[in-house]
Amino acid sequence: MKPFLITTAIDYTNAPPHIGHAYEKILADVLARYQRQQGREVFFLTGVDQHGQKVQQSAEREGIAPQEFADRVSEKFLSLWKTLGISYDAWAATTAPLHKAAVQRILNDLKERDWLYKATYSGHYSVRQEQFLTDKERGPDGEFGPEWGEVILLNEENWYFRLSKCSEWLHGFLETRKDFVTPDFRQTELKNAASKITGDLCISRPKSRLEWGIELPFDTGFVTYVWFDALINYISFAGYGVAGSSFETLWPADHHVIGKDILIPAHGVYWPCMLHAMGFSDEQMPHLLVHGFWSLRGEKVSKSTGNVVDPTALAESYGTTALRYYLMRDAVMGRDADFSEERLLLRHNTELGNGLGNLVNRTLSMTRRYREGSPKSVPLPEDLSAHRSADVESMRSFVTQMDAAQIHAGIETMVDLVNRANALVESSAPWKLAKDPEQADRLDAVLATLILSARAAATLLLPVAPDAATEILRQLSLDPAAIAGEIVVEDLPEGYVCGEPIPVFPRLELPVVEDAAA
Ligand code: MSP
Question: Which of 7, 18, 21, 304 has most ligand 1 atoms within 8 Å of its beta carbon, as the pocket-test mutant?
Answer without folding.
Answer: 21
